[in-house]
Structure to design on (872 residues):
């Protein structure tokens, strides 16, 4: 009967949780809406009673939102000085993603978030691929991406702030975009996927593991119908482990079918990305299988979906696994592939 | 012991959030064995109480007991102490008046639909010191069974011809996009507005093509993302459309689509409640006003009126409460004409400003939901045919929503909300089947009717104060696009109230005096 029986004290978002996870807090609330615990904490009680506490909590909530906005501010100076491609690349690298200029290597930031600014010299070279997986990119931040008119591949996997509204504004990329991955974005639903019909040049679309999609199988069929030129490489959720299974990262869901020698060299070169051996990442195997490394497609120099990474040491703080991880949260952190989830501020 | 004490406080915490005056310990306790004391209950301060449930299965069995196993009297003492320390009041009046509205309120908003709530939200948000204004929302139909908000199709578009309408809609779409920032309530789950970014597709015949072209020009100037399509482009993009008779089409690329009106309504309600707006389920039956005579510059004598009290009649009761107020906002939608009449708008010799009525009446519109297995797929936008018939996709299972506005002569009787199925057969189906051949075989699954707050003068909104009833403000008459403009209209009205002029969007053309002056703000191609 005592207070001990009430739920543990928590804000909607753990504000004191330093690092990027704080930014992702909002979306976590979205993803977990169904399983959100009913109950009133001491903070809630105090907020009900005292205006000061209520105002403080509202302020903290606003600050969370503001943080995301700040991360998505455009770099107008770079855009004016070096052109939209450099600005877009700078934006993505600042967010912790990776970019590939046409005919160049993948560029990404190192463990401390630093990256070389050599790419500012490539003024005339367009960006052809962007991997913004796990970044806190939102509707506003998409502005920088939409300026990349030659963009052929875009990975937005597990982006917590990419929602239906964002998909609705991808149409300026319709002429160039050939590959799009939206896997694991918690806020994308079938409503947003419907607006992808503008992207008529799309060849591959990954819409696996979208928790907000109410009817994955049907949605997949309808999307295939809508984009007839989009090849069978369209992934449906039914080929991937369900959300409940993903949350248990200890068990691999599919044996690693990738035996390409090219793949082997990649993994050996880059132990941080040794996905095939690490059973912590259940569906990375599936992804790699679906985006085979030596795929003889007409997509130019893009070889594999994951850019080669420098080995990144595990930072001591914040801890990789939260003390009491909720199901989807754990999946998000785990499948962050260690790229961005432990990105130090 | 402390835990127990706090628990008691928690129980009362719910009561502390009640509206209006508080009441005494007449409520029966609701006690649950495991979950702690939940729900609203008031324990009489005097002594221990043993709570018994009314459920015959548990009759006679003690379910919970205060101060169980404690020393006598200690619990109640502590409870007394806590009640005196905690805010929320320990005063127990002898009878329950919590359902009555307060006796004073700075602003009374008549109508708790999406427009009324939006006005309340922006008033509370733009007020300078926190909690400066007391706002009361009076809603007659608390289940929203007849409210236009809940019965709307939920579309949002920028394809208007009046720049103000485009600006309103653009502001609203921005509001909806950031709805979880605007309407965030601590501890409550985020809202899922269920926005479908599928766009609007307006079709124009040979005759309307020129108008459409000039409209699109205005829309682009205002910042809407609209593109024009030739019949051939249309055929390529949407092969299921029969382009016969179509000369031009305009298609919204962004910011257009449809959303869940109920979610917006509930989100606004939740937020507004957390900001301290008071609600009352009742009906406004009378305005008590004073009048003074003045002369205009041209020497005409006019009577200025000022509302002092609003009589709010309680639902299913003869009881009413006069609410003293400084401002009344008429956001009663389809019923706003009657509210205006109550305030004395339009009572005067015809042809004068005093005799100018608010030309807003309710009009019945049907919405049909049909199933068509061969119908257009996921890419289907909100299609509006040149004939006025419209449809949109609903969900994934090849279901479609649609309807058509009847002509002036065949307006149905708005007395009830019954659906005329012949109207679908005669007026809606033929043009749609002609436009989309797949619709030749379909099955109507269900249908409903809702009201438009139809402005018979020029089918556009009325925003701002009345020139003679000086403290009545209008936010009504949007003739079917009130839902999609509500967030912006709320802001405009709040700015008018707080600053005396519009700041974000200039809505002066929507002022009431246009009915007297005869200046129509007409929308070309109204849907």
């Amino acid at each position: 009967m005592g207070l001990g029986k009430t739920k543990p004290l928590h804000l909607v978002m753990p504000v004191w949780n330093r690092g990027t996870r704080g930014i992702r807090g909002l979306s976590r609330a979205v993803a977990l809406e169904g399983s959100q615990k009913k109950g009133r904490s001491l903070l809630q009680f105090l907020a009900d009673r005292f205006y000061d506490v209520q105002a403080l909590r509202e302020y903290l909530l606003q600050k969370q939102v503001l943080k995301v906005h700040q991360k998505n501010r455009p770099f107008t100076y770079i855009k004016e000085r070096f052109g939209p491609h450099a600005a877009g690349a700078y934006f993505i690298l600042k967010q912790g993603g990776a970019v590939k200029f046409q005919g160049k290597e993948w560029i990404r930031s190192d463990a401390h978030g630093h990256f070389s600014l050599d790419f500012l010299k490539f003024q005339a070279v367009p960006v052809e691929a962007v991997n913004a997986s796990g970044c806190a990119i939102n509707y506003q931040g998409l502005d920088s991406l939409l300026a990349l008119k030659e963009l052929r591949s875009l990975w937005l996997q597990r982006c917590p702030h990419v929602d239906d509204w964002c998909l609705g504004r991808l149409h300026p990329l319709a002429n160039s975009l050939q590959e799009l991955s939206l896997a694991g974005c918690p806020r994308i639903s079938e409503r947003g996927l419907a607006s992808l019909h503008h992207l008529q040049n799309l060849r591959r679309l990954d819409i696996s593991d979208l928790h907000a999609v109410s009817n994955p199988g049907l949605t997949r069929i309808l999307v295939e119908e809508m984009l007839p030129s989009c090849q069978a490489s369209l992934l449906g959720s039914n080929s991937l482990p369900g959300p409940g299974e993903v949350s248990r990262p200890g068990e691999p869901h599919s044996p690693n079918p990738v035996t390409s020698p090219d793949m082997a060299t990649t993994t050996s070169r880059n132990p941080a990305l040794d996905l095939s051996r690490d059973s912590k990442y259940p569906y990375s195997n599936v992804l790699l299988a679906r985006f085979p490394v030596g795929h003889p497609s007409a997509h130019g120099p893009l070889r594999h979906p994951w850019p080669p990474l420098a080995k990144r040491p595990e930072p001591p703080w914040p801890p990789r696994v939260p003390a009491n991880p909720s199901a989807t949260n754990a999946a998000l952190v785990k499948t962050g592939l260690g790229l961005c989830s432990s990105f130090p501020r | 012991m402390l835990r127990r004490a706090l628990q008691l406080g928690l129980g009362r915490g719910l009561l502390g959030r009640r509206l209006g005056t508080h009441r005494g310990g007449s409520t029966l306790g609701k006690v649950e064995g495991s979950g702690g004391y939940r729900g609203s209950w008031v324990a009489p301060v005097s002594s221990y109480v043993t709570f018994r449930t009314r459920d015959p299965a548990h009759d006679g069995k003690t379910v919970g007991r205060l101060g169980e196993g404690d020393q006598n009297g200690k619990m109640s003492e502590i409870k007394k102490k806590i009640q005196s320390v905690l805010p929320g009041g320990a005063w127990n009046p002898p009878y329950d008046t919590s359902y009555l509205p307060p006796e004073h309120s700075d602003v009374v908003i008549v109508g708790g639909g999406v427009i009324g709530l939006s006005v309340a939200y922006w008033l509370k948000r733009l007020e300078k010191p926190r909690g400066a204004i007391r706002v009361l929302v009076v809603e007659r139909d608390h289940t929203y069974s007849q409210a236009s908000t809940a019965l709307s199709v939920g579309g949002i578009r920028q394809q208007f011809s009046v720049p103000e309408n485009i600006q309103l809609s653009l502001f609203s779409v921005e509001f909806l996009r950031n709805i979880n920032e605007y309407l965030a309530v601590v501890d409550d789950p985020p809202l899922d507005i269920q926005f479908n970014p599928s766009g609007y597709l307006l079709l124009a015949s040979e005759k309307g093509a020129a108008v459409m072209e000039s409209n699109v020009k205005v829309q682009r100037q205002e910042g809407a993302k609209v593109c024009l399509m030739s019949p051939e482009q249309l055929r390529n993009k949407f092969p299921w459309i029969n382009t016969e008779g179509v000369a031009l089409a305009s298609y919204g690329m962004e910011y257009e689509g449809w959303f869940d009106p109920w979610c917006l309504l509930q989100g606004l309600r939740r937020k507004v409640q957390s900001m301290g707006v008071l609600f009352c389920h009742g009906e406004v039956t009378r305005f008590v006003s004073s009048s003074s005579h003045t002369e205009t510059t041209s020497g005409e004598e006019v009577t200025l009126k000022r509302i002092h009290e609003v009589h709010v009649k309680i639902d299913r009761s003869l009881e009413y409460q006069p609410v003293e107020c400084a401002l009344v906002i008429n956001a009663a939608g389809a019923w706003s004409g009657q509210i205006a009449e109550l305030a004395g708008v339009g009572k005067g010799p015809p042809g004068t400003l005093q005799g100018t009525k608010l030309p807003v009446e309710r009009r019945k519109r049907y919405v049909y939901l049909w199933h068509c297995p061969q119908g257009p797929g996921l890419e289907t936008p909100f299609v509006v045919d040149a004939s006025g018939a419209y449809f949109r996709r609903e969900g994934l299972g090849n279901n479609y929503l649609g309807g058509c506005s009847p002509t002036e002569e065949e307006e149905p009787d708005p007395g009830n909300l019954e659906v005329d199925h012949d109207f679908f057969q005669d007026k809606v189906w033929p043009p749609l089947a002609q436009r989309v051949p797949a619709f030749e075989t379909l099955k109507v699954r269900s249908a409903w009717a809702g009201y438009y707050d139809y402005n018979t003068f020029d089918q556009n909104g009325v925003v701002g104060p009345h020139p003679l009833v000086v403290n009545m403000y209008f936010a009504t008459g949007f003739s079917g696009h009130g839902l999609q403009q509500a967030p912006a209209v709320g802001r405009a009205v709040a700015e008018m109230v707080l600053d005396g002029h519009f700041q974000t969007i200039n809505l002066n053309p929507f002022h009431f005096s246009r009915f007297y002056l005869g200046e129509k703000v007409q929308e070309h191609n109204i849907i």
About this structure: The longest strand of chain A covers residues 127-131. Chain A is about 30% helix and 5% strand.
